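pls design
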């Protein structure tokens, strides 16, 4: 097996953390950014990079600071709470963003993004 065929766990964890930071930027910039995603798209992207299994194996959190880890969990819970009060499909975007759960979600995402930005993106090589 060549080095190119073996991708270390630490490298994968760094890449996942960096994609989570991308997701936080999307949440914090919605709707003013030009990403082309609506709220459903943002939820789907988040679920691609943060799912329930991440919390089950806290040992995988080595590439996070304790602050980043806690704020990532807080943001995930805020997204879950927001999803509970919005329809699954055909979300009325203005009505959804007027809900108090949206304000809590964005506040959590902003706090998490600020924590992640202290160290910035981790090297992916």
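designed seq:
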């Amino acid at each position: 097996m060549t080095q190119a065929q073996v991708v270390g766990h630490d490298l994968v964890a760094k890449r996942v953390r960096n994609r989570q930071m991308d997701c936080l930027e999307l949440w914090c910039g919605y709707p003013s950014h030009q990403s082309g995603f609506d709220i459903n798209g943002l939820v789907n992207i988040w679920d691609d990079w943060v799912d329930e299994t991440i919390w089950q194996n806290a040992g995988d959190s080595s590439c996070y600071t304790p602050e980043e880890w806690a704020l990532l969990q807080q943001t995930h819970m805020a997204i879950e709470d927001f999803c509970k009060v919005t329809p699954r499909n055909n979300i009325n975007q203005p009505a959804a963003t007027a809900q108090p759960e949206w304000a809590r979600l964005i506040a959590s995402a902003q706090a998490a993004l600020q924590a992640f930005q202290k160290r910035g993106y981790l090297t992916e090589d």
